[in-house]
Structure formats: C-alpha cells, structure tokens
Amino acid sequence: MPSTPVPDRTAPPSSGAAGRAHVVTELLHAWGAGDAGASEALVPLVYAELRRQARRALRREGEGHTLQATALVHEAWLRLDGQHDARWESRTQFLAVAAQMMRRVLVDHARTRRALKRGGGVAGTQVTLGDAIQAVAATDPVDVLALDEALERLAVMDARKARLVELRYFAGLSIPEAAAALGISEATVGREWAVARMWLRRELEA
C-alpha cells in the first residue's frame, strides 16, 4: 500500500491564510497516518492559535487560577498527541478537538483544586461566560464544573448543540467556522446557537 504523501517541510510556507491552512491540513493527514515527524512540523504552524484559544479560556476564570496559557497548551497538546485513532481532516476540525482537550484540562484542574480545598461547600474555579455565550450577564461568575455538567446534560438531549457550545465557548470559533466543523449550514448554526444559549441560561441560573 502506498504511503501517505508528506508535505515538503523544507519548502517555504505558502503565502496567505488559505495556503497556510492547506499546509496544516496536509500535515494533519500525515500525522493521522502515523508520521510522528508531521506533528513536530505542525507545532509552529498551530501554536499561536492554540495559545489564543488558551488565553480566551483562561480570561474567563476568576481570580486565583493557577494555570497559565503555556501550561494549558502543553497539557492539551499531550492529550492531542495521545489521540492515536484520530482522523484529522482539517485545521478547523483540529482546533475543535483542541478546544475539547482544553475543556477537559480546565475541568480536571478545577476538580483537583476543589479536592485540595478544606471544608465543604467551597466553590470551584470560576469562569465568566460574557458575550461568548450571552447565557448570563457578563459579570456573573459561573463555576467551570457547573458549566461542564450543564454541557454533559445538554449532550444527552442534543449532542450537536453541546458540541456547538464547546466550539463557540472554548475554541472561540465564529459561526462560519463552527458550521464548517459540524458540517451544517450557517443558518442552522445560528438557530441552534440561540436555542443552546437560552437552555444554558436557564440551567446555570437555576
């Protein structure tokens, strides 16, 4: 069976966003085919975007959080690197999975902090949903564990809406990007996003 072609890593990167996205996609395909070197070549091309994702997520944490963007990226990358059965399809799909990994890191971190605290009834890591979800007022803190649990409940009822919230909140994807990641129209994303926001607001304010 012929091996999967690997992009020429000695060639200069293609100019423009479309060219860079194409190179990233080719490297993702090579990585998914088992080429460990492709992941090393991929890092400098996606690291800046992963840091932006991490900063977006950490900005929503309240005072006292101990994770830094670099640490969050590194932990998420280790989990991505462990996705041996993953079928990487595109840059958007990769960033969507990266957002899922960051969500898991933040939740695990919050659970660890809660377990280490003395006494009962201590709140976990706080995040602010703000304009990203518009589920509650921008100044209202929401426990990241409560948000995770709400998303788990939403996933049982409607997995796609839960995934959409994850893409918009943790990855910061735009409506067009989320539509591409989910394989649905932008109009459908707009409708489901509105429903998901209302549902989350009700759950988080209960």
Brief rundown of the structure:
By secondary structure, the protein is an all-alpha fold. Helices cover 67% and strands 3% of the residues. The protein has one domain.
What does this 3D model show about the protein?
The protein has 206 residues and is mainly alpha-helical. It has one domain. The N terminus is likely disordered. It is globular and about 50 Å long. The N and C termini lie far apart (57 Å). Helix content is 67%, strand content 3%. It has nine helices and two strands; from the N terminus they run ααααβαβαααα.
Low-confidence parts? 1-15, 128-140
Strand order within the widest sheet?
1-2
Question: Which value, in Å, is the CA radius of gyration?
Answer: 18 Å
Counted by DSSP, the helix tally is 9
Number of domains: 1
Order of helices and strands: HHHHEHEHHHH
Main pleated sheet = 2 strands, antiparallel
Overall number of strands: 2
**Helix/strand structural class:** mainly alpha
What is the percent of helical residues? 55-70%
Q: How much of the residues is beta strand, in percent?
A: under 5%
Distance between the termini: 57 Å
Principal-axis shape? globular
Mean pLDDT: 75
List keywords for this structure.
mainly alpha, single chain, two-stranded antiparallel ribbon, 206 residues
Write the layout of secondary structure elements.
Blueprint: H1 16-32, H2 36-59, H3 69-81, H4 91-116, E1 126-128, H5 130-133, E2 141-143, H6 144-157, H7 159-169, H8 175-182, H9 186-205
Antiparallel strand pairs: 1-2
Helix pairs in contact: 1-2, 2-3, 2-4, 3-4, 6-7, 6-9, 7-9, 8-9
